[in-house]
Amino acid sequence: MAVELLPVSADDIEEMAGIFNYYVEHSLATYTDTPVSTERFEALMSFAPGYPALVARDADGAVVGFGLLRPYSPIPAFDRAAELTCFLAKGYTGRGIGSMILQALQSGAVEIGIESIVATVSSLNEGSLRFHLARGFTEQGRLAGIGSRNGRRFDVVYLQKIL
Length: 163
What we know:
Helix content: 25-40%
Shape: globular
Structural class: alpha+beta
CATH superfamily of the domain at 4-115: Gcn5-related N-acetyltransferase (GNAT)
Largest sheet: 7 strands, mixed
Strand order of the largest sheet: 1-2-3-4-5-7-6
């Protein structure tokens, strides 16, 4: 599928929040259990100046996915680590778009001196776990039973990729 990757702009936030809210309402892929406003979405994503944040637009110009990196921690000892977030619109998984976004984010990470990318994934989100593991992330640990969503307990799985 032909998509164009572009830096996130303020005009993209509403569409991005819509993609995120689909997963809030129809899956266990988010830690949030109720849809979020555009303002709350921006706060949850913690966009960081200087860190790569991208949208994938289809031929019609619709946002069909997004990904971003943000600081792993504000503590200077962790300046070379970033945390990853990536979501694709319903019906757009399995088409290589997530891999394109991840590759572009990794390239951007290297450019700003990031050496390690961390992703935290719910143990109930098997598709995301498979995606990350197939692309060079390794499981580094988990917090067992720490979360609960829709009456189901889950682990938070820590995944890491050394660049």
